[in-house]
């Protein structure tokens, strides 16, 4: 391990030590499965752009990808259709609202404000080119596997738990259709969106996605160019503006790096040209962001001096 990376490993260990006794927040409860995940789990992983992997504590524990999947499907849509075409259908504006807000599609003449809240994410799913729902789903799942450099699978248990409680998202899908912003059958888009949230991932795999975004779209573990370099700034800009929902501004103010949270307890953060860091801890703040995940990544980023807005 390089001396930079052994320094990162030491700081990551420190972060876990400092945060592990924080009992703040609660597991998500609106998706029944998520309330049953052991709340004390805590993991942190870093993957560098050169492919070095650092993992601390429960970094191999698999959890539901949830909203972080929105970033991966956005990347796929950009690959297929190009940034300009996507931007005419879904915006790049922070909502300042909860992730499942219907206002996310009311404020911009019916156009979803961003692909990183539920409304924009379901519209983005519906844009993935496919002849039917299963083909669309398989493309999304395969892309999750490519980006993580691992075989990603659907959890039937998580999916079942979400599919039977997602009335709110189904309503959003119909609202999108009524404003002409849904590009497949709405219940199919909602179904595929719910599945993409219900895959299982561990923190090393999630950090690998971050490292790919930090590395011009080349997955440093497989060496494959998965995302065009020109699409990376669009993805990272969306993450800065909306990655932690209504506290994205606080995250930019405090950490200054693109992040993306999921109600499964995962939190991904990208350090361009350096790597990806992923934290996992199930207890969430009222906005749906992992409490200890934010605390750990904040500690590592500050100690390492990682902040995109810093100048000398
Ligand atoms: N599947 C979840 C939902 O749509 C994802 C939300 C999240 O992680 N913020 O409600």
From TrEMBL:
Is Hydrolase a UniProt keyword of this protein? yes
Gene3D superfamilies reported for this sequence? DD-peptidase/beta-lactamase superfamily
Q: What is its EC number?
A: 3.5.1.2
Q: Does the keyword 4Fe-4S apply?
A: no
Q: Which GO terms describe its molecular function?
A: glutaminase activity
Reaction(s) this enzyme catalyzes, per UniProt: L-glutamine + H2O = L-glutamate + NH4(+)
The protein's UniProt keywords, in alphabetical order, are: Acetylation, Hydrolase
Listed under GO biological process in this entry are: glutamate biosynthetic process; L-glutamine catabolic process
For substrate, which residues are the binding ones? 67, 118, 162, 169, 193, 245, 263
Q: Which class of enzymes does this protein belong to?
A: hydrolase
HAMAP family according to UniProt: Glutaminase (MF_00313)
Q: What does the record note on quaternary structure?
A: Homotetramer.
Family the entry assigns: Belongs to the glutaminase family.
Question: Under what name is this protein listed?
Answer: Glutaminase
Species lineage? Bacteria, Pseudomonadati, Pseudomonadota, Gammaproteobacteria, Alteromonadales
């Amino acid at each position: 391990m390089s001396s930079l990376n052994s320094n990162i490993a030491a700081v990551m260990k420190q972060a876990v030590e400092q945060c592990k006794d924080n009992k703040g927040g609660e597991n998500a409860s609106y998706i029944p499965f998520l309330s049953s995940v052991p709340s004390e789990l805590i993991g942190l992983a870093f993957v560098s752009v050169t492919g070095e992997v650092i993992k601390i504590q429960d970094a191999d524990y698999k959890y539901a990808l949830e909203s972080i999947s929105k970033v991966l499907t956005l990347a796929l849509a950009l690959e297929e259709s190009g940034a300009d075409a996507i931007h005419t259908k879904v915006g790049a504006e922070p909502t300042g609202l909860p992730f499942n807000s219907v206002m996310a599609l009311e404020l911009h003449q019916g156009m979803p404000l961003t692909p990183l809240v539920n409304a924009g994410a379901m519209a983005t799913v519906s844009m993935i080119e496919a002849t039917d729902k299963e083909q669309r789903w398989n493309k999304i799942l395969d892309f999750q596997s490519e980006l993580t450099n691992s075989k990603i699978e659907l959890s039937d248990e998580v999916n079942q738990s979400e599919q039977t409680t997602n009335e709110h998202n189904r309503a959003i899908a119909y609202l999108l259709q009524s404003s002409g912003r849904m590009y497949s059958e709405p219940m199919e888009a909602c179904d595929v969106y719910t599945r993409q949230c219900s895959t299982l991932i561990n923190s090393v795999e999630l950090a690998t996605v971050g490292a790919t975004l930090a590395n011009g779209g080349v997955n440093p573990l497989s060496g494959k160019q998965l995302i065009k370099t020109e699409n990376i700034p669009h993805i990272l800009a969306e993450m800065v503006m909306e990655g932690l929902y209504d506290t994205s501004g606080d995250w930019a103010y405090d950490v200054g790096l693109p992040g993306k949270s999921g109600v499964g307890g995962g939190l991904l953060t990208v350090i361009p040209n350096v790597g990806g860091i992923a934290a996992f801890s199930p207890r969430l703040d009222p906005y749906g962001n992992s409490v200890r995940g934010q605390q750990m990544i904040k500690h590592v980023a500050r100690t390492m001096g990682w902040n995109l807005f810093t100048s000398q």
